[in-house]
Amino acid sequence: MGWRRILAVCLGAAVSAVVATAQRGGGRGPSTVYVLKPARVFDGDVMHEGWAVRVRGDRIEAAGPATGIDPTGAQVVDLPQTTLMPGMVEGHSHILLHSYSETSWNDQVEHEGLALRVARAVNHLRAELMSGFTTIRDLGTEGAGYADVELKQAVNQGIIPGPRLLCATRAIVATGAYGPKGFAQEWTVPQGAEEASGMDMIRVVRDQIGHGADWVKLYADYRFGPLPGSHPTFTQEEMKFAVDAAHSAGVPVAVHSSTAEGMRRAVLAGVDTIEHGNDGTPEVFKLMAEHNVALCPTLAAGGMSDRKRASFQAALAAGVTILSGSDVGTFPHGDNGHELELMVDCGMPAVDALKAATSVAGRVLKMEIGQVKPGMYADLIAVDGDPTKEIAAVRRVKFVMKAGTVYKSPGAQPANSQ
To answer: Residue 310 CA to chain centroid, in angstroms?
Structure first.
């Protein structure tokens, strides 16, 4: 073998090693056994002082008082003055959008090409992960087709770093109800979601599932028709067609709804979560609680208003299950922690806000995440301080592990997350 060939092989191996290290943020692979020793552990429900956690492969092997956790054969990671907790869940993300303060939704959908949007999304995924969100539910590509499914494949194959990704692909809107709008009538303009009506809902749901949808997302209401504001679009029967088709395939359904009537129809159609709920009433929140439909409040999207504050407080009073979700993408990725701060500001106890992003989220999404206990996925983060006393601590993420791989730690220089 000539020297040029030898040099090429060596350089190729070196580049591969650097790329692999960057993808892991400088951490070791999931075969490594770790013992993590923080000041305290929030297990998804309760805070424990003086605990440690042992990780083997991609799962938590043991969790309990540090004196009872065997460090034999493990890499010990000291995390002083931190709280170790489950990796947080972002329940409502748009990974293929970037902040509206940079570019309007219309201009993103109309003028930004798919390759450009995917390139941005790679950075968005990294930013979410490095800010402590190890699972995200992405609720619509907003004109980017099935790019979310392929980004999920890239994460799962180790090509790019990112959270666990649950995809809703194109999302489903009533015919004529979505955007972009404002073009001459003779033009057929590609929409930010897939249109459907009547029994065709069944075909569209099945087609999206066939393209890799983990969740189906419907728009129960939107700014539609001659009157100002949002109005119901799909009938209850249309949503029932979609829900039955999705549930038959084992796929849950999320519904965008801000009106009380849209929410009522969605609940009675059997959906799993409702997004936003801005104009929810005590009566409709009582109905949600009775039917075990969770609310993803997205308080951080579009600015807090008295109306959103009142509706969220009404949901709490009715005992509705809260899944933390911010609608990130409408504002910068990585700032998701603001949602938890707003929930606390609206009267939710800090420990309940943490649960909404961890253990409750795991149960709503039916995933083995959100709790620090043996057998769960080793999706773990450490934050500076005690978030049950100061919720802003969730923004001070010092350590990130997903599936037993370290992506961020105090002693490592992770890949660029900006």
So the answer is: 24
Q: Are strands 75-86 and 380-384 parallel, antiparallel or unpaired?
A: antiparallel
Domains defined along the chain, listed by start: 26-87+372-408 (2.30.40.10), 88-365 (3.20.20.140)
Amino acid at 261: E
- Best CA proximity match to 221, nearest among 158, 186, 171, 265: 265
Q: CB within 8 A of 316, min separation 6: which ones? A: 322, 346, 347, 348
- For residues 362 and 371, is the Cβ–Cβ distance under 8 A? yes
Look up residue 316 and give its amino acid. Answer: L
| pLDDT tens, position by position, 37-85 | 999 999 999 999 999 999 999 999 999 999 999 999 999 999 999 999 9
> What is the number of other CB atoms lying within 10 angstroms of the CB of residue 87?
25
pLDDT tens-digit map of 371-391: 999 999 999 999 999 999 999
With tokens 């869940």, the residue in question is 89
pTM of this prediction? 0.91
